User: Fold this.
Amino acid sequence: MKVVKFVFPPLDNNVYLAYDKSEGVVIDVALGADAIVEFVKKHNINILYLINTHAHIDHTAHNYKLKELLGIKIALHKNDHALLKEFFNSNYPFIHEEFKYVEPDVLLEDGQIIKFGNVEMKVIHTPGHTPGSICLYVENEGILFSGDTLFAGTYGRTDFPYSSEEDMIKSLRKLSNLPKDVKVYPGHYEETKIGYESWLKEI
Ligand SMILES: [Zn+2]
Ligand SMILES: [Zn+2]
Assistant:
């Protein structure tokens, strides 16, 4: 599996393209639809899904555009479905272009497997930052996409009205049980490894 990382506005969002044998998925989109389309056309990659790690607008603003341009399906955890709709009804001073709501095509659940090429990517439900936050784990590659749940040295905000610190702690404990050498690709900032985040064991 190949992983390509992009950093896009509006909030220095990490967007990942994961692919194998010319088939792949995009993990979050931010405001990067045009650049992603350019890349996948150039490299002839068939994108099956845009997976939202959670509903926050900085990660999902171009959902509609990537769907329009590539005809992909949008997948999001079922517990963030209502929030996604709600977030698209607000104004954001940090977004200076059009964005509009589109219904997700697939509502994900814990343990669900997403397949592309020879890859099996597993959904791990990690509520806390939002009720439907997920991590995506590719066990045989030792790779975890952690959204805004786990960052290098810290974890995602839990001070939103719909967040839960208690759920976040449980989710982080779940991640602490992954093998130490699992590489972590978060929704913001730099990559890390489970083994580098020794605080996870003490939380
Ligand atoms: Zn977020
Ligand atoms: Zn974020």
Notes: Residues 2-202 form a domain with the Metallo-beta-lactamase; Chain A fold (CATH 3.60.15.10). Residues 54, 56, 129, 148, 156 surround zinc ion (ligand 1) (CB under 6 Å). The mean pLDDT is 97.
